[in-house]
Specification:
Layout lengths: L13 E2 L14 H9 L7 E2 L1 H7 L9 H6 L8 H13 L2 H13 L8 H4 L3 E2 L2 E2 L3 E5 L2 E4 L34 H9 L5 E4 L9 H8 L12 E6 L1 H4 L10 H14 L1 E7 L9 H12 L3 E8 L7 H13 L3 E7 L6 H4 L3 H14 L8 E6 L3 E11 L2 E11 L9 E4 L22
Parallel strand pairs: 6-7, 7-8, 8-9, 9-10, 10-11, 11-12
Antiparallel strand pairs: 1-2, 3-4, 5-6, 12-13, 13-14, 14-15
Helix pairs in contact: 4-5, 8-10, 12-14
The protein binds pyridoxal-5'-phosphate (PLP).
Amino acid sequence: MRCDVAAHPSNRPITQENIASTEFWQLLDGETQEALEIVAPVLPFRTNSYVLSRLIDWDSAPDDPIYRLTFPHRDMLEPSEYERLRDVRRRGSPAEFALAVTEARAHLNPNSQGQSTLNVPLLDGRRMAGVQHKYHETALLFPAAGQTCFTNCTYCFRWAQFVGDPDLLFAAPDTSELVEYLRRTPEVTDVLVTGGDPMTMSARRLQDYIEPLLAPDLEHVQNIRIGTKAPASYPLRFFAEEDSDDLLRLLERVAKVRSLALMVHISHPVELSTLEAEEAIERLRNTGAVIRTQAPVLRHINDDPAVWAELWSSAVRLGITPYYMFVGRDTGAKAYFELPLVKVHEIYQEAYSKVTGLARSVRGPVMSATPGKVRVLGVQEVDGERVFVLDYLQARDPSLVRRPFFARYDPEATWFDQLRPLEGDEFRLL
Ligand SMILES: *Cc1c(COP(=O)(O)O)cnc(C)c1O
């Protein structure tokens, strides 16, 4: 059952502040209602009536994948942490609760994989605001005006961006610093505009950010990528809003002077199943942009090869190229979503074996770890010992890329830093 109470879905944010006054409140189970009071202050939830009315199947809630992707669950915190917050909330003052929330966040590894320490470049000796540069070819831009999303994913690895900690907020006021950096850094061929979701900005704002990147003296920046979940989280952005046509015209123009890649985050095939999503994708393709899809594998949401096979097949049918299948990162409610690498690899392998070669452009499963993007190629026996075979698809040090290496087999490992070399302290590249 879809809940069609919202005949005309809008992007008005639905958060813990106002959900009790919407028609969706009575659809939530009691446990979720309590979790909204206790977990949401730590991992804030935010969604809209499109997601709630078109994507969630309320007959399968609370186990519906989009429900889990949208609403906090008590198991997203350690049981002791949950109980502590619940007690402080009942007995303590608001200030004590706020302190407990801050402490709980600090336990959730907000700066995963050295994002704010290792990836921020310097310009004339100063750390750049809202720019990350990890791999030679690609610089990331975080427009200050685009650091929210139409819907927050409960597993988001950038959740710290949304809780207002100024140390963890990547936000560029404009593109001028990046432009100067790019002039001095000819190795950069790609700029990825990311967030948050840049499509939450008005067409005008987005244009202000992107236009300077199209300057003739930045011709080495051949590829403009935009990371977005809007075709899944609010496809009406591309046809029902006041500036939808302006936005499409902007994308058209970018696609004329550069190659434009939309890196679309699709977590589950149901997100591609609505008429609204189809309409959005058709319009986006008509701009000349190439659309690619990527997402992590997560328990409770998409830990099933049939789901991935359907996702990639639907993508190809709609003209979208499957790109990466990620391993969920070691941050936020990781314990709730994580799966052993062995299991993630099985899901990838089985799904991959079932789809058309046109969908086998997808690479995975990939961990975005501190040194680079590490792919799990499989499990093998070497000299009578079981091992993981891995390689780097991307690395801070490009000489590491695409050289297989082994790690000790560990059926429980869920992330790269839990893996050990066969001998000694370092992985030996083949
Ligand atoms: C994944 C990623 C990129 C892009 O890598 P591609 O393999 O070119 O898609 C760039 N920067 C960072 C920090 C990334 O994690």
